[in-house]
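Encode chain A's predicted structure.
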Amino acid sequence: MPITTLSGREFNQDIARAKRAAEKGPVIITDRGNPAFVLQRYDDWRHQAGARPGLSLLEALADPASADIDFEPPKAELGFRPADLS
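Encoded structure for chain A:
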C-alpha cells in the first residue's frame, strides 16, 4: 500500500489529487515539514479502528472487549462558582 506525502499547501491547492492518492493508500499531510494529518478512505479507517458496521453505542459499551479501553474523560468545567451563603 503506497503512502503519499503532501505539504499542506499542495493539499489545499489540489484536494482532488489527495483524494485520488487516498484511494491507493494513506496520504500524510505535512505542516512546516512535519507530519500533521492523515487522509484515508473512511472504510479503511473504520477497519483499522476495529469498528463494526451497524454497531450501536450501547452494543459497543456492552462489548466485553471494550473493558480494556482506557478512558479518562476531562472534568467538565461549567463555569459555576460556589454560592455565597453568608
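The chain has one domain: 4-66.
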